[in-house]
Write a structure and sequence with these properties.
heterodimer, A: 160 residues, alpha+beta, Ubiquitin-like (UB roll), DNA polymerase, domain 1, 2 domains, 5-stranded mixed β-sheet, 33% helix, globular, B: 339 residues, Uridine Diphospho-n-acetylenolpyruvylglucosamine Reductase, domain 2, Enolase-like, domain 1, 5-stranded antiparallel β-sheet, 3-stranded parallel β-sheet, 13 helices
């Protein structure tokens, strides 16, 4: 079966790859493209560890066929820091130890960034609702939620 | 996952040609249920026809009748946060927000939501028999582990439930499903779109393999004043309904002028009983009337062991939902405390 040729943009860079119809975007990111920040937890859209954005929309890359990336714009956790400068969410997660094993962290950060872009001042209830698709089996979520709300407050302060 | 070919037609006519070429072909839009089922070897399409870029199917538009037409590719997120839907059909927005996660709502399409398959454990486990997956192989849920299964409209071949929240609201709103196929277009009333399992549990809907959903149309009446979507599940978020209730009332003073009630999590399709709704007309909007409606809706409900609790749970949920709707205090989907 012929491989499919896909042209897309990943973290701002024009990217081309070959894939099988059955490969997911996550397969191609972690395999041929070497972007292993996105994790595979469940592979069925339940855990959110593979969260990326596709044309700005938060999605599970394990449920996106790689072929569907044609002409789309993808962002992954690798594009979150600017060079050595961490995104405020990344910095805060380190400071507040809002992670333990770290498998869910890339997906949580991607989801939290989209939350703060759309709602710079979320309530705790709103933050928990927004992050419902990112499962964490270590932290019990409290540290994650506190880090997200603290970052939001800092970013609002910085934007004044 | 089995091997398959991939096609990306440019328009609706091309999509219908592609699907007609191969009886094993399936449309793919959001992929939020098809791709996971393919990974579990439950779905084994020979060809995937990617419809995500078909023009003209991704808008929410006014209809001549005064309702709204939701294109088949409109995402669950777009429905949930659309201002017109929020104002005129808040029951629908609420039901959509009761389900899944931001990631899945962003990807999931309106058409695909209607075509979701059951989350029955045995259906998902290709190593076990299942009449829905492999007709004639048997139903291990009957006499097996059946806590999440149906209590109404079951057959000796299948006791699976339909998993959608959105469809429960669409059933209560009496939406109409617009479909295109090789023979042209047709409209399917929502109550006739999903099937009961009967002798053919492998068929979830009345849609044919070579047809495509193009839109879901909402009639003008949206019950915006008195409605609720009450969803009860094992944890407070991100779980399928054990029981859910979409309730919509039109009140005339303290009396019910019109009622719509649809149940989720209890049957192979969103469960409605027009006689129970008609019997509420003219009755006072109070607990005694709601109890009579619950009795009628659940007449004939039968448990299968582990799910016996659903009969009482559904009864209480109907009472609570009708109280919420009558009071104009719909269930919040972010603050999930039930009042």
């Amino acid at each position: 079966m012929a491989k499919l040729h896909v042209s897309t943009t990943i973290n701002g860079e024009p990217t081309e790859f070959l894939c099988e119809p059955s490969q997911s975007m996550l397969d191609v990111l972690r395999g041929p493209l070497g972007l292993t920040g996105s994790k595979e937890g469940c592979g069925s859209g339940d855990c959110g560890a593979c969260t990326i954005t596709l044309d700005g929309r938060l999605v599970c890359s394990c449920l996106v066929l790689a072929a569907e990336a044609q002409d789309r714009e993808i962002r992954t956790i690798e594009g979150m820091a600017e060079g050595d400068r961490l995104h405020p969410l990344q910095q805060k997660f380190l400071e507040m130890a809002a992670l333990q094993c770290g498998i869910c962290t890339p997906g949580v950060l991607m989801a939290a960034r989209t939350l703060l872009e759309q709602n710079p001042d979320p309530t705790e209830t709103e933050a928990r609702f927004w992050l419902a698709g990112n499962l964490c089996r270590c932290t019990g979520y409290d540290k994650i939620i506190r880090a997200v709300l603290d970052t939001a407050a800092e970013m609002r302060e910085a934007a004044r | 996952m089995n091997r398959f070919t991939y096609a990306r037609p440019a328009d609706l006519a091309g999509a219908l040609r592609e699907i007609a070429r191969d009886p094993g072909a399936r449309f793919i839009a959001g992929g939020t249920n098809l791709v996971d089922l393919m990974k579990y070897d439950v779905e084994r399409p020979t060809r995937l026809v990617d419809v995500t870029r078909l023009p003209g199917l991704d808008a929410i538009e006014e209809t001549a009748a005064g309702g709204l037409r939701i294109g088949a590719l409109v995402s669950n997120t777009a429905i949930a946060y659309d201002a017109r839907i929020g104002r005129r059909y808040p029951l629908l927005a609420s039901a959509v927000l009761a389900g899944a996660s931001p990631q899945l709502r962003n990807a999931a399409s309106t058409g695909g939501n209607l075509l979701q398959r059951t989350r029955c454990y045995y259906f998902y486990d290709a190593a076990t028999p299942c009449n829905k997956r492999e007709p004639g192989s048997g139903c291990p849920a009957i006499g097996g582990v059946n806590r999440i299964h149906a209590i109404l409209g079951t057959s000796e071949h299948c006791i699976a439930t339909h998993p959608s929240d959105m469809c429960v609201a669409l059933a209560a709103l009496e939406a109409v499903v617009q479909v295109a196929g090789p023979g042209g277009e047709r409209a399917i009333p929502f109550a006739e779109f999903h099937r009961l399992p009967g002798d053919h549990p492998e068929r979830d809907t009345t849609l044919c393999q070579d047809e495509i959903i193009t839109a879901v149309e909402l009639p003008p009446e949206g019950f915006a004043e008195h409605h609720t979507y009450l969803k009860l599940r094992d944890r407070l978020s991100y779980a399928f309904a054990l029981v859910s209730v979409a309730a919509a009332l039109e009140l005339d003073g303290g009396r019910i002028a019109r009622a719509r009630i649809a149940l989720g999590g209890v049957a192979h399709k969103p469960w409605r009983m027009p006689e129970a709704e008609a019997a509420l007309a003219g009755q006072p909007a109070e607990a005694a009337s709601f109890a009579l409606a619950a009795d009628r809706l659940l007449a004939g409900a039968q448990g299968h062991g582990h799910n016996d609790f659903k009969i009482d749970l559904a009864r209480r949920a109907i009472l609570r939902a009708l109280s919420q709707a009558a009071a104009g205090t719909p269930q919040s989907q972010t603050d999930k405390r039930i009042r």
